[in-house]
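Incident log, entry 3
Record: Bifunctional glutamine synthetase adenylyltransferase/adenylyl-removing enzyme (1012 residues)
Problem: checksum mismatch between cached and fresh output.
Input:
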Amino acid sequence: MASRDRMGTTAGALARRGFMDSARAGRLIAEAGLDPERHADLIGALSGAVDPDLALLGLTRVLERSPDPEEVCTALCEDPDLRARLVQVLGASVALTDHLVRHPEDWRELHGADAARAPEPEELRAGLLHIVGADPNAAAPAADPAGGGPEDPAHALRVAYRRRVLRLAGRDLTGVSDFEQVSAELADLAAATLEAALAIARFQAPDDAALCRLAVIGMGKCGGRELNYVSDVDVVFVAEPAEGVEDEQAALRAAARLAAAMMRVPGETDSEGMLWQVDAALRPEGRNGPLVRPLAGHVAYYERWAKTWEFQALLKARPIAGDAELGAAYAKAITPLVWEAAGRPHFVDDVQAMRRRVEAHIPPTQADRQLKLGPGGLRDVEFAVQLLQLVHGRGDETLRAGGTLAALAALSRGGYVGREDAAGLADAYRFLRRVEHLLQLYRLRRTHLLPDPDTADGEEQLRRLGRALGFTANPVTGLASVWRRRVGEVRRLHEKLFYRPLLNAVARLPGEEARLSPEQARVRLEALGFVDPAGALRHLESLTSGVTRRAAIQRTLLPVMLGWFADAPDPDAGLLGFRRVSEALGTTPWYLRLLRDDVRVAERMAWLLGTSRYATDLLLRAPEAVAVLADDADLVQRRNAELSVEADSALRRHDTAENAVAAVRALRRRELLRTAAADLLEVTGVEGVGDALTAISAVTIDAALRAATMRVEWERGEQACTRLCVVGMGRFGGNELSYASDADVMFVHEPLPGATPEAATRTAGAIVRELRRLLELPAAEPPLRLDADLRPEGRSGPMVRTLDSYAAYYARWSAAWESQALLRAVPVAGDAALGERFTALIDPIRYPEGGVSDKAVREIRRLKARMEAERLPRGADPTLHTKLGRGGLSDVEWVAQLLQLRYAHRIPELRTTGTLRVLDVAAQTGLIDPEDGATLEIAWRLAARVRGMIMLVRGKGGDSIPMDLRERSAIAGALGYRTEEDGEGAAELLLQDYWRVTRRARAVMERAFYDD
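Fresh output:
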């Protein structure tokens, strides 16, 4: 007993080797005459099969039927390759085991050099034609039983087919051939089988064969050379009369009979079983259409009547049997129609809708086990790849591959799919197809459904599958885990690629525009409105020339983006900016991938670059910031706390004040770009722009103030002897900064205990000078200029004062205009407690008890009138000046401020620095007619938006709507105005709106401001 255990044939030893029914395994080994010592390698190989029990049972059955079992055992012991192939086949396929039992000599198919070699397609064709007694070299081979062929050629063909599958499975299961080689060989074997079946049909109906030429076009997986072990073989038939035959209808009827007879051969069942069905449902008109058509009939149908899915089906079409010349003519005629199909209306939507319909018809109980049709299954990969091929293949012939993996590789090489995405899809596809092959190989039946793990038989099948896929420790759990991960990855990538908006954009382009040849590009550039087509063409050539992946992606993007550039006010500037940004980012991997995978980023980028010099300049200083265009959430103003934390980090990272403030200014530049993009893309309104610009300016000044303080302290070798606070004034204080605004400020300081006022003032002055220097240093970042002209005594007064000095000044000398200016004063940086005390100091001045005096009102009115007469630039049109012109910002703001001066003492809600908030409260409390308030608000918003857009479009400040028609049109376009059908231009529409709105606002202003 101990000796048998040592040799590994006791029940315990066999169980440890992987045999589930070890007692039966022991009996079978004995019945097969296997000696534990002499056949130790064979028994060991059996234990390594995907199902050791199945393999042992199969070997026993084969040996029982073999005329010389000893010869088989000897060969298995002496030839390790034969042993590995046979054992793996016996353990994985009951159907092939049955074949070996019926044909016990066929184990030799797995022996020798031929068993390890993949045959060429022509070798398979010639071999199967010989089997049925046909001459492979004949123009139209026909079976000939009388001439030495088999008595039953159809049966002989089925046996020969099984032998070829047996040999292929031996290579597949031992890893000699990979999935792609196996699929291609199965397709070639199916094609050879159809050729032999057609030869049988010609033998059975020689009169029909003489009347016609018949070509068999492979479709689907057979056409793409990626067939399964068991799958319907999809075909289409094309026929023409034979030479000298004049009756076309008779020829077509004969061809239909031949085709039907050919289809029956692999589909009929005898002792060898059925091979597979031949399915001609993909022909024109489907099952309702004639089985065969002449070439002209096919072309006419596809030109006039074919639906979108039919062109998708034709993607893999190739001649596989029958008349080779006719098959080639079919391919030549149909192929151009396939690659023009993506230009059909709603093409992409139709393909996407068809995929959704397929999913909708999956029984709910099968959805999570479907290899083929379910979410994350094979169809997800195939549909995504085919849609990308059809859309982009119009202009790129390298994508015109029939096989899924070959097409996916071409899409990746061409930059249409990211390398990682392509690799992920390819790996998942190989895994799913491998699972599919193993499932079908078991009984050689057509199935795409994973076994149900809740059944005993299902769990056994899953265990066999898991072992075949290399999950030896825990096959069922390992397979389930990888299955879920692969399916999830496929679904994620399918949704990313299949529903990519770029597909719709590319598909909508006329075919010639998608290719973008130099000649076509020049014509299109002129038609799109590029002022300098030659210059634009140079930019295109620079971006798309070469064989790099970058150039390939640009060739896909730019035909679409040209239309988006043309929608912008300045297409030429947009394309130039795009070239400069692309060159600045160079080979940065994420950039073009972002544009390709998120078409909204590309569209937004085209609009920004073709609209705004200001945004373009900011983007060129930091091209990586283009990533913020991907999501509206990234364009929304960041919280002040986040900005402050980032500014603090910048100060800590750098050892000099200049470098630290440069980093903070870079932060400000990024926020300026974020705000400009949100403004131009209408993600935020004029109030949001003011809030964002004010917030980043305050954070920048606060950080720079700390850096300046540290610099002064370092230079003097002592801590600063005073507290300093920066007070925002004007638009800065009102949270209404625009892109061109300086930051109006006042500086207030308070000596620390023990410090003399003179020393404290000198220190404060030094800090303020250093602050201004740091903020205005020449650099790539936009400077932030501080304007202190609103301080007491204006430019003649000291730059910085103590809190007591402010108190003394306002007590004795404060004028009405200063009370008005203080309405928008708010601490923005520096010592917060000092800022609170300053606010408490000025509140009684700007919100005087009992309201402002009549004398002060008259003074304010005179000042407003004088400002209109003196401060409006010479030659400026008062109806076009957004700030000081009639009905402009100043008119609205002075109305609001006068209301505050008169009534804020008794209406606390008026104690705010924001213009629109004042108007809102005034309307609610009856200080102003609500309709008048709305008129003023509309005018303020429009003037503020136009003023901001002038800066964005021109890249430089300006308060007047430009006289230059091109600039005015660009500003109008940026604001959303479009030339109407009657020819009225966008610039004229803008002026009409502006004049109407500001005229009404001026009328309200004159009543509310000048009338008592």
